[in-house]
Give the backbone structure.
Amino acid sequence: MVETKNTEQKVVPFPKQKNLKESERKWGKMVTGQGFCIVPSLLFRAQRRLGLNATQLAIIMHLADFWWEQERKPHPSKATLGERLGISSRQVQRHIAELEKAGILKRIERIGFYGKQSNYYDLSGLVNRLEELAPEFQEVKDQTKKMRREVERRGLRRRQKR
């Protein structure tokens, strides 16, 4: 903000907090500077409906951390996922096989110049399942909002007693 008095200019800086993004204000600039990933809240709310145990959800979260662009599928190695989660590569492989069987993700073999590389992971099955569940969750959200509005209206208690 620049204020002018006569011919003199005075620069008044905004407080530092105002310049920070909301995520930086919540988590701190050093923390968000290490990167972050966007995950829909519905994934957490629908975890049980999707039949995901805690480890499977954690694997999906780590895959999401590697998935930056819709067209480019994540492809971390099982060893990398295992190191991040503190479990063996074999355990990662079993959980991924379960997720694939459930239709949550699909493994796509990735062959490079030097032979077989880590798989691509297609999460479109998860995206589709969340899109199917979204209207149901939205309906409950809308009903709750409607009930809250009704309860907040004046005279509701008197009308119900009659």
The beta strands are 2-5, 8-11, 106-112, 115-122.
